[in-house]
Design brief:
Blueprint: H1 14-29, H2 35-46, H3 52-63, H4 70-93, E1 97-98, E2 101-102, H5 104-108, H6 110-131, H7 134-157, H8 165-190, H9 195-222, H10 225-228, H11 234-237, H12 243-251, H13 254-266, H14 272-281, H15 284-302, H16 310-321
Antiparallel strand pairs: 1-2
Helix pairs in contact: 1-3, 1-4, 2-6, 3-4, 3-8, 3-16, 4-6, 4-8, 7-8, 8-9, 9-15, 12-13, 12-15, 15-16
The structure holds geranylgeranyl diphosphate.
The site of geranylgeranyl diphosphate has 20 residues, from α4, α6, α7, α8 and α9.
Length: 327
């Protein structure tokens, strides 16, 4: 006899369910009695984003056995801090495209955008206090302070073609990797993990964040505006000496090196196609990807310190995918 067909129950990944909970918290905590704040905050948040930092909070706390509701609150906190930095960064960089849409500064102006960034940042601190753990406040107060330092360091490095690779790496560890590090560390803090595990989680986040920014800098030269949702070539336009350019200058012929130096000093994009050709031919893009791969491998190896679990498998996959993203 034929069995009656059973309609398949869709398998929902528990981490997707948890991310939906984070979305609920994000939407609830966005509200303000001031209409313009609501409008701008919802504009930027509704455009989405990859939500990698909240995922780190959820996965690392789960990998260490914590499943309390505070993880949703802290996952939303790191996304709010991230969003505040994006709003401020787009004003500083005069960017016009983010997450496939016109930036908030392009639509609402610089003043409103900076102030809504301040709202999100201070709302994040209200939410942290609600978790009632001094260590959480300490981790995020320190991280946001370092992020601001990184952004100022980057400002000081603009238009400097003689920047060392070490100084470039310091900027990306501060401005980007620090929030990844804090997100991963919070997973351990929530789980009440010992010092050794907390350091392992933080190191995983730091390596992931460094890989992530290296790929970000790479995609500014080889990505597509459509896929990235932001304009490619912006780094050169701003005279930002990122690793692809630093390595290309090390490897290029003198005349080519001079072309790149000139573009960094003057923030010129007219020569972008020539510079792209040099960056490709010298293998600077491959070398940047290889540097990101080393960090992703470091992240993978650190995970051996964590107990075997479904969440740890997801973290392993995240580190493997981080180097091969296109958006
Ligand atoms: C408000 C604490 C505070 C500081 C202000 C402006 C600033 C100081 C910091 C900016 C730091 C910054 C924007 C670093 C770049 C980080 C980065 C790679 C952003 C892109 O992240 P994705 O790709 O973005 O995760 P989505 O859109 O996916 O969320």
């Amino acid at each position: 006899m034929l069995e009656s067909p059973v309609s398949p129950t869709p398998v929902v990944d528990p981490i997707d369910l948890a991310m939906q909970q984070v979305d609920v918290v994000i939407r609830e905590r966005l509200s303000s009695r001031v209409a313009l704040i609501d409008q701008i905050a919802r504009y930027i948040v509704s455009a989405g984003g990859k939500r990698i930092r909240p995922r780190l909070v959820l996965l690392l706390s789960e990998a260490l056995g914590f499943e309390g509701p505070e993880r949703f609150e802290l996952a939303a906190v790191v996304e709010f801090i991230h969003t505040a930095t994006l709003l401020h960064d787009d004003v500083v960089d005069e960017s016009s495209l983010r997450r496939g849409r016109a930036t908030a500064n392009a639509i609402f102006g610089n003043a409103a955008t900076v102030l809504v960034g301040d709202f999100l940042y201070s709302r994040a601190f209200q939410m942290m206090v609600s978790v009632n753990r001094m260590r959480v406040l300490e981790v995020l107060a320190d991280a946001t302070n370092v992020i601001a330092e990184g952004e100022v360091l980057q400002l000081m490095n603009m238009h400097d073609p003689d920047l060392s690779v070490e100084d470039y790496l310091q900027v990306i560890r501060f401005k980007t990797a620090k929030l990844f590090e804090a997100s991963a560390r919070l997973g351990a803090v929530l789980a009440g993990a010992d010092e050794r595990l907390e350091v392992a989680c933080a190191s995983y986040g730091r390596a992931m964040g460094t890989a992530f920014q290296l790929v970000d800098d790479l995609l500014d030269y080889e990505g597509s505006t459509d896929q990235l949702g932001k304009n490619v070539g912006d780094d050169l336009r701003e005279g930002k000496p990122t690793l692809p350019l630093l390595l290309a200058m090390e490897r290029a012929e003198p005349a080519e090196r001079e072309l790149i130096r000139h573009a960094i000093v003057h923030g010129e994009v007219q020569k972008l196609p020539d510079i792209l050709a040099i960056v490709r031919r010298t293998g600077a893009l491959d070398a940047t990807r290889a540097a990101a791969q080393l960090e992703a491998d470091k992240a993978r190896d650190i995970l051996a310190a964590l107990p075997d679990s479904r969440a740890r498998d997801a973290l392993l996959e995240l580190s493997a995918r981080s180097v091969h993203r296109s958006s």
